[in-house]
Queue: 3 jobs
Job 1
Amino acid sequence: MTLWPVALLAVLFIIGVPVAFAMMIAVIPYFLLDPYIAANVVAQKLIGNCESVSLMAVPFFIAAGSIMNYSGITEKLMDLADALVGHLTGGLGQVNVMLSTLMGGISGSGAADCAMECKILVPEMIKQGYDKSFSAAVTAASACITPIIPPGVALVVYACICEVSVGKLLASGYIPGLMLCIAQMIVVYVISKKRHYKAHRDHIMPAKVIFKLLTHSLWALFLPFGIILGLRIGMFTATEGGVIMAFYSLLVGKLVYKKLELRQLPSIMIEAALSTAPVMLVLCAANLFSYYMTWENIPTALTTMLLNLTSNKYVFLLVCNILYLVLGMFMDGTACMIIIAPLLAPVATKLGINLVHFGLVTCLNIGLGAITPPFGTYLFLTVGTLKMKTSDLVREIIPFVLVSVLVLFIVTYIPWLATFIPKLLYGNI
C-alpha cells in the first residue's frame, strides 16, 4: 500500500494549501508515476463529479438560496421570528437563533445565513446595547443550525457521495435542528439574564398579529415541506427539486413579495456561481483522491482496522465524532466530509448503523466544525464581516459550542431522533 500521497496531503493541509488543490497536488504525481494507469484517467476522474446527475442538485439549491436573499423572504422570516421570540430575555439574540432555524428551510447554507445576519441583525443588536462579541457569537453559532434543517446543502452532498436517499436524509434534520435551536436559545437566555440584556419588547405579540405574519411567511415556510413531499411521492428527483426550488423562489420574489428585480438576476447568478464553484472543485478533487484510495484498497484496509479496533457501534460512533470534531477544527467541514464519510460509511453499515442516522450525525459534526477554533469557517466569516478580533469571538462562542456538542452526542446515541420523521414518511428505513 502506497501511502505517501496521504502524508503529502497532511503536509499540504498544515502549510495552508486550499483543500481542493492539496488533494490534486497529492495524487496527480502518484497517477503519472504509475505505469498501470493512463494519464487521461486523471482528467476523467477530475471531471467525473461534474457529470453526476445527483450532484447537479447542489448548484440549484445554492442558486435558490441566493435568489431568496434578494426576494424579500428573509425580511418576512425575520418579522415572524421577532413575533415568536422577541419578548423573551435577550430578545434580539433569540430572534437571531430563530431566524437561523427558519432560514435553514430556505437557503440551506450556513455561510449565507451567517453573512446575512452579520449585516442585518448584528448592527441592530449592538445598537440595542448587546456586546459586539456576544452578538457575533450568537450569529456564528446559530449558523450551524441552518445546514441541518432541510434542504441543507451538506445533507444533499452527503446523500450523493454515500448513496443515501436524499429525501430520507433531508427529513432526518428537523428534530436535531430544533434541538440545536432550543439549546442555543437557552444559552442566550442564561447569558442575557446575567448581563441584563432586555427583551426586544415587553409583551407577547397578539395571536392575530402572529397569524398574519405567519400567513405572509407561508410562501417561504412551505418550501422545505414541499420539497420533501415531492421527493417522497416521487414527483421529482433531488436535482429536479433544486430546479423547482430555484424557479419557485424566483416567482415568489417577483410576483408575491415583489422585492426581486429582473435586473438583479445577473448579480444573483454570479453570487450563486461563486458559492458553487468551491464546493464543486472540492468534490472533483475528492473524486480523484477517492480513486487513489480505492486503487490502493485503503477503504477496505481501514474498515478491517476499525472493525478489529472495536465491534461495538457505540464506541465506533464516539471515535467518529471525535475524529470529525478534531478534523473540523483544522479544515473545511464539507471537504472533511467528502474525504472521510465514504471511508466510514461502509464500517457503519457493517456495524448495523443506519446510514440516514450516520449521515445526520456527520452533518451535525460538519456544522460544529465551522464554529470551532482555530479554523472554523463561520468564525472567519463573522470576524471578517464585523471587523473584530478572533479571540473576542472565540471567548464568547464557547458556551454555544458546548451545548451544541451535547446535542450532537444526544442525537448520536438516540438514533430515533434522526430516523423518526423519515420512518414516518417512508416506512421502514
Job 2
Amino acid sequence: MGFLLNLLTRLPLPALYGVGAVLYVLAFHIVRWRRLVAARNIASAFPELTKEEHATILRQSYKNLCDVMVEAIWAWGAEAGALKSRVTIENPELIQRHAQAGRSVLLLTAHFCNWEWLLLAAGAHLGVPIDAVYKPSRQQSVDTFLRGARARFGGNPIPYKDFIVEMMKRRSEARAYAMVADQTPIRKDEKHWTHFLHQDTAFYVGAEKIARILKAPVLFVEMHRVRRGHYTVRLSEIAEPPYQRGVETLIVERYARALEAEVRQSPPDWLWVHRKWKYGKPVYA
C-alpha cells in the first residue's frame, strides 16, 4: 500500500482530481459510505435549513472530502514552492513572534478544508519546528510512508500515545505543537461538554492540559477554501498564559466556539462522516 501511495504522488493534480471524481461516485452513490451518519449529523446541526439545503451540503461535503484525499496524495510528493503557492498564511507573524521570543505555541485546528496540507504548508512557510499529534495507521508500510511524507518540510508527526513524553523532552525549546482537536473522546475518557451546533457535544480536554503544562499561548488555525486546490489560513489567539486555576476548560470552550463559527461559515468543508455525536451527555455531567 505504501508503494502504491508513493506511485500516486507522481501524478499531476488534475489527473488525481479525476481519481477523486471516481471515488466520489463510489463513496456517495454506490457504496453510500457513512452517508446515513453524515446526513443525520448535518440535519441535527442545521435544523433551521430545508431538506434540500441539507442534501446540497451532504453532496458537496463528499466532493470536498474526495478532493482533500487526492490533494493530500499530491502534496506528499510536491515541492515546497508548489504547496506554498496553493496555501497562503495570512498572518504568520503571530507564530514567528512567539518563536523569536523563545515561547512555544499550541496550534488547534480541525478536520476542515484540507487539514493534511496544514502541517506541510506551515513547515514550508514558517521555518518553525512543528510537532503534530497523529494516530498511526495499523498497516506499518502506510504509517512509515505517511510519517515520512508529512515530515518533508520540517514537520514532526508524533503518535498520540507518545506525545506527552516527546513534548516533555522538548519542553525547554521554542516549538509549535499542533493538534486536530475535533475528534470525539471515547466514552470513558475525560471530556468537556458544551452546546455545539444545536446539541450537547463532547470535546477532548488534552489541549487544555498541554497548554497549561507548556504555559503556551493557544492559536486557532482557521482554513478557508478560495477555490479548488487553493486555500487561505488565518491564525487567531484564543488563550494566553498565565492561566487561572479553577478555570479548567477555558481553552476547550473557546476552541469549540471558534470551530462552530468556522463550520457555520462553510458547512460542506467539515468532515461530517465522523461520528461526532455517537453518545449522549449523561444526566450527571
Job 3
Amino acid sequence: MREVLDDIERWSAEGKRVALARVVSVVGSAPRAVGAALAISDAGDISGSVSGGCVEPDVIEEAQTILRATRPGALSPGPRAKLLTYGVSEEENFERIGLSCGGEIQVFVQAFDPADWREVAQAIHAGQSAGLGTIIGGPAEWVGLNAAYLPSSQATYAPLNSWHAPDAPGAEIFNEYTSASAARLLHEGASEVMNITPMREGAEWSKMFFASYLPQPTLIVIGAGHITIPLTRIAKTVGYRTVVMDAREAFATRERLPDADEIIIAWPDEALGTLPLNSATAIAVLTHDDKFDVPALTVALTAPDVAYVGAIGSRGTRAKRDERLRAAGITDEQIARIHGPIGLDIGAGSPEEIALAIMAQIVAARHGKA
C-alpha cells in the first residue's frame, strides 16, 4: 500500500475518484505476495501492480466498472467492491486472463474512500504501525466496509470507527474483531483473510481481510567506508530507508553517499541515542574500529526491539570485541544477537559483493530465515 499511497492522495487532491485493488489470498506460485496493491483512477492513471502484468488488464477493467457504477448520479448504481479470483495453468493461459505460473490469487477491488483510510494513511506517513480490516465476503451491504486498527497508549490494538456508526451494518463485526487478533497480526507483520463467526442468531458468516502496514524498514550504517556506498544503494532498492553515521567528516559526504537518505556526522553511539530503534530497524557496524564499534554496539544491543545487529570483522576480531563489550556491561545473551562476521557466506570479495551479502542477511533476518 505504501508504494501507491502518494499517488492515491495526489489523484484525490486533483478531484479524481480512485479504486484500490489488493491481493488478499495466494495459493501456490504467484508474482506478488498478499497485500500487493494496484491503484486506478477514473482518469486512467495506474500505480502499483497485483501480478506483474498477468491479470492487470482485467483488474483495471473491473475497477473502472466499479468507479462508473459508484460515481455520484450514476444511472445504474452497482457494487462498490468485488472479489476476483485468477488461477490458470500454463496451457490455459493463452486462451484467457490468468497466471502463467499456475498459482491462484484473489484480488479484492473496491472504490477508495479517503475517510476510511485517513487514520491508516496518517500512521504510514508518520512511520507507525497500522492495520485495516476490510469485509470481503458476507452480506452484500457489508462488503467493502473498512475499519482501521492503530496502537493505543496501552500498546494494544483496537478498532477506530470514528466514521462508522455503532449501529451501522457490519459494526458488530468490527467491534467484535478482537484487539488481540489485530495485535498478533500487526506484531507478525501479517496480512490474511479471516472467517468471522456470526455474532447473533441467523446472521451470515463473513470474511475479513486484515492488512498490516508496518513502518518502512530502516538500515542504520555505522561507518561511511567503501562498503557503505553500495550497501546504501542496495538497501534503497529493496525498500529500506538508510541512515549513515560517522564522526569523520571527510568520509560522511553526500558526494560519496548519494543513495543515503540521511547522513549524520557524529559519534555513532551519541547519534543512535537520538533515533527511534524498533523492530523495523537494522544496524550494520562497519567501522572496524573499537572506539566506534564498542560504543555503537552497546547502544544497539541494549535496544531490545532492533531487528538486526551486524558487525564487520574476522572471528578473531570478534572475540576481542566481545571481551570489550562484556567489560562495558553487555551480557553474553545480548552479544549472541550480533551477526558476525557480518553477511551471508557467499564468497564475497569486492565491496559490492560484501554489501550484497550483508543486505541478503538483513532481509533473511527480517523474514525469520536462518
